[in-house]
Amino acid sequence: MRVGVGTPRQTQISPLELPRYGAERLCGIRCIATQLTSEPPKEASLTAMVIQRLDALVILNLTGTGFERRGGGATGYVQDAYLAHLLPQPDIDLDQPAYWTVSPPLSLDVLTQHDFLNLVEGLEAEFRREYVAQEVGADQERVLLVGLMTDKLTEQQHEDGLAELERLVDTAGGRVLHRIIQKRPRPHPQTVIGAGKVQEIALKVQTLGANLVVFDRDLSPAQVRNLELQFGVRVVDRTEVILDIFAQRAQSQAGKLQVELAQLAYMLPRLTGRGQAMSRLGGGIGTRGPGETKLETQRRTIQKRLARLQQEVNQLQSHRSRLRQQRQQQEVPSVAIVGYTNAGKSTLINALTNAEVYTADQLFATLDPTTRRLTLGETRQILLTDTVGFIHELPPALVDAFRATLEEVTEADALLHVVDLSHPAWKSQIRSVMKILSEMPITPGPMLIAFNKIDMADEETLVEAKEEFPLAVFISASKRLGLDNLRQTLSQLVNYALA
To answer: How many Cβ atoms are within 10 Å of 247's Cβ, its own excluded?
Structure first.
């Protein structure tokens, strides 16, 4: 028997420690609380009931006067009682904060006649029916997005970032049910967001039937553990969503190798436990004992795999370097196509060279670099290389793992920077790409900006882009607009790069 002292909110049990947990079950615990005021249960208590999926919540209203206990202290008599329990909801209403029913005031005699077992069995039968209906109709993960707007971000920057995260989740195969946003000067060190917002999200997870919570920023291992204990579902950050997309998109052996390296590098510091303190090999109080712990075994296994993958990536890097040297010996200049993800790079190389690179209106549709010959004029030929798309704050693990691929950018004679002019944040995307290029170990060659998707951009945006970037070219790769001008300008760019 478990006894908690305090209000239902104060004595809340972590979802992972409840006897039963799941969208189709109640938790197996009934809560009895007392209060001195003759009123229904407060919303905080009802919210705690929803978060924990309690079988029932009974509030006993005491008179505040009664007999004296031995040693002092007065107790009261039960004046009336309230019975509250959850209600199955076939239709999700985001404007309704909670889903419960509260009885009118009941006498103790009436309350004791209540068949709680029958009530719980009936409710669980209804929940199971709704749960099965949801499972049949949903083949995607049901995601709750959480955004934190700090003092460092403008409202527009935050909104653009959250919209991009929603597209990332969609590309990864999830379905966003709802967004929750909090404004704070800085992230909370333990939970990123405030305690009240944590409870609000836990409530939304229950009422919406979400099975994944995605944050718009990187989380520390401790923050993930703290949040999962509160929510009772998996919590991932933006980097993990991007890594998942890369894992789905990688087709070649080289791509799969680099993705696995990035995933393991990300996973290693996030192993559950007390980090190095759980190592039996470190020495010191609390670390000595027979054999290795499971955590140490996992860490050693991952470190061995990381070392092996790093060797293979180094070999891949050497192989790509030899291929580039062969191309340079043939005196064929190269141009690398760079740009923000989903800017239309693969569509452009298909339009220029009749390549058959996979294209889709998705983020990171292609990962593996593709090189094709392009004839400029009558005799001039260049090599066009389609590279992996960039994104704002590209995870460092990906940059390190994909350095063999990104060297195609630094080794090229010139760059063609493709920009999606129809995107509302096109200026921010240009800055993000330029920032990543500036952090390359070798300074890339001269660059030409090509504004793509002009058929989808409005006239005001076109005028603004032409004023700010007078040397750029304007094209639509899908409609094949402006490609002749692009070829002519590319020829001039290559001549300048080789001069």
So the answer is: 16
Which amino acid is it at 246?
A: F
| Rounded Cα distance, 427 and 416, in Å | 17
Structure tokens at 209: 């039937």
Q: Which of 102, 100, 55, 107 is nearest to 81 (CA)?
A: 107
Residue for token pair 């944040």? 425
Phi and psi at residue 52, to the nearest 5°: -90, -10
Q: Looking at per-residue confidence, does 362 or 148 come out higher?
A: 148
Q: What are phi and psi of 358, to 5 degrees?
A: -65, 135
Task: Report d(CA 332, CA 373) in Å as an integer.
Answer: 9
Give the type of residue at 237: D
Look at residue 93 and tell me whether its pLDDT is greater than 80.
no
> 31 pairs with which residues across the strands?
57
Give the pair of three-digit tokens for residue 236. 């991932």
* Cα–Cα dist 271/282, whole Å: 17
Where is average pLDDT lowest: 53-67, 269-283, 456-470? 269-283
Residue spans of beta strands (DSSP E) within 317-453? 334-339, 370-376, 380-386, 414-420, 447-452
Domains 141-236 and 328-498 share a fold: yes
Q: How far apart are CA 149 and CA 4, in angstroms?
A: 36
A 10 A CB-CB count for 295 gives: 18
Q: What are the domain boundaries of the chain?
A: 15-137, 141-236, 328-498
User: How far, in Å, CA of 214 to CA of 398, rounded?
Assistant: 19
Query: Quick one: pLDDT band at residue 1, thresholds 50, 70, 90?
Result: very low
pLDDT digits (tens, 9 = 90+) for 202-230: 888 877 778 899 999 889 888 998 998 88
10 Å CB burial of residue 459 (0-12, 13-18, 19+) is exposed
Query: Which letter does DSSP use for residue 15 in this model?
Result: G
Q: Is 292 exposed, middle or buried (0-12, 13-18, 19+ CB in 10 A)?
A: middle
Backbone phi and psi for residue 30, each to the nearest 5 degrees, phi listed first: -110, 135
Tell me what pLDDT residue 70 has.
Answer: 59
Q: Are 194 and 242 in contact (CB under 8 A)?
A: no
The fold for domain 141-236 equals Rossmann fold (3.40.50)
Count of Cβ atoms closer than 10 Å to residue 145 Cβ: 21
Place of tokens 């949040």: 227
CA dihedral (132, 133, 135, 140) in degrees, to 10, reads: -170
Q: 328-498, superfamily in CATH?
A: P-loop containing nucleotide triphosphate hydrolases (3.40.50.300)
Nearest one of 272, 245, 234, 209 to 395, comparing CA atoms: 245
Rounded-to-integer distance, Cα 129 and Cα 276, Å:
46
